[in-house]
């Protein structure tokens, strides 16, 4: 009798545990096995269109998952990411040492996944008929800190250009685009003149250049492609190129094969290891990697090769296994 009672008790306990487990799984899913929960993304304004496109497609399949995609710039996004306020950070440059330290301080681990390529576009107003190309050293002369208050007119950059004041438009200092541009052109990250029109929103820069006949600006290739009828794209000559290719325009081919130098770059997302434990995060990142190639091209960026996406998928799967 005692054995029989013990058996019944164990059976009841197992039923209760199963019910609890079933409830926990149900809490992570909506009706019909659909996922629930939330995916919080912030960061780069450059990567934003890709993540927004992926989020929109994912939302169509998983309507019960709340998707939030912000754009506070790569640096601003990493601040939130390092405090554990977001699950994923869009980044147009790799994470910096001080951002790594902030993550470590809050016991936040992460992995980096590359999703596409981008080429920074140098643009002028379509009414500008004299800037047909520009060199890296000329861009540096315009943008370096020492230029502020001294280098103001086009003919100071190239003597045959007119003696008219130019106006500069570029990414804000919290943007990964700003970091990348200053490192590639000026030679030091986060170093430039301060008297230019800055914005974390590339659309603001597009509007500025298209309405200012003496403007020169930089932003991601996707924003040029979306506004090519209102902007003039300028070929860039990298004089450090030993092969002497001359001035090169950014395009799918030149960015992919890195001949558009030094302004080609990878686009990245960073995923919080704590968030990885949630099924909606795992599902979303898997969906992102599977669809990044097609969707990045749709919004104007340059997709990677299939083998490169496979490598990123393997890296992500290993990270998930480690942090389950």
3D structure, described in words:
With 324 residues, the protein is an alpha/beta fold. The chain folds into 2 domains: 31-118 and 266-322, Periplasmic binding protein-like II (D-Maltodextrin-Binding Protein, domain 2), CATH 3.40.190.10; 120-265, 3-Layer(aba) Sandwich (D-Maltodextrin-Binding Protein, domain 2), CATH 3.40.190.10. Helix content is 41%, strand content 19%. The strands form 2 sheets. Strands 1, 2, 3, 4, 6, 7, 8, 9 and 12 form a 9-stranded mixed β-sheet that branches. The chain has a 3-stranded mixed β-sheet with strand order 5-10-11. Helix 2 crosses helix 10 and helix 10 (279-298) runs antiparallel to helix 11. The longest helix has 26 residues, at 2-27. The radius of gyration is 24 Å and the shape is elongated. The two termini are 43 Å apart.
């Amino acid at each position: 009798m005692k054995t029989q009672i013990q058996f019944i008790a164990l059976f009841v306990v197992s039923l209760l545990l199963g019910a609890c487990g079933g409830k926990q799984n149900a809490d992570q899913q909506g009706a019909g096995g659909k996922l629930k929960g939330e995916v919080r993304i912030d960061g780069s304004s450059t990567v934003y269109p890709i993540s927004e496109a992926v989020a929109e497609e994912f939302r169509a399949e998983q309507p019960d998952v709340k998707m939030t995609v912000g754009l506070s710039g790569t640096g601003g996004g990493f601040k939130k990411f390092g405090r554990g306020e977001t699950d994923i950070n869009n980044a147009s440059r790799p994470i910096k040492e001080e951002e790594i330290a902030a993550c470590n301080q809050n016991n936040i681990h992460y992995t980096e996944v590359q999703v596409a390529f981008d080429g920074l576009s140098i643009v002028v107003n379509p009414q500008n008929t004299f800037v047909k190309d520009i060199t890296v050293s000329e861009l540096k002369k315009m943008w370096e800190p020492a230029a502020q208050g001294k280098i103001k007119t086009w003919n100071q950059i190239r003597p045959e250009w007119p003696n008219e004041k130019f106006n500069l438009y570029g990414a804000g200092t919290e943007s990964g685009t700003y970091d990348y541009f200053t490192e590639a052109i000026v030679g030091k990250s986060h170093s430039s003149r301060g008297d230019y029109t800055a914005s974390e929103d590339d659309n603001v820069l597009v509007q500025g250049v298209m309405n200012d006949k003496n403007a020169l600006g930089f932003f991601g290739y996707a924003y040029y492609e979306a506004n090519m009828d209102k902007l003039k794209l300028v070929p860039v000559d990298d004089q450090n190129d030993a092969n002497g290719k001359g001035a090169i325009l950014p395009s799918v081919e030149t960015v992919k094969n890195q001949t558009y130098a030094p302004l080609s770059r990878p686009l990245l997302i960073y995923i919080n290891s704590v968030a990885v434990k949630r099924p909606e995060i795992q599902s979303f990142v898997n969906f992102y990697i599977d669809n990044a190639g097609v969707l990045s091209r749709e919004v104007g960026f340059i997709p990677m090769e299939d083998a490169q996406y496979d490598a990123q998928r393997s890296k992500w799967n290993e990270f998930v296994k480690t942090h389950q």
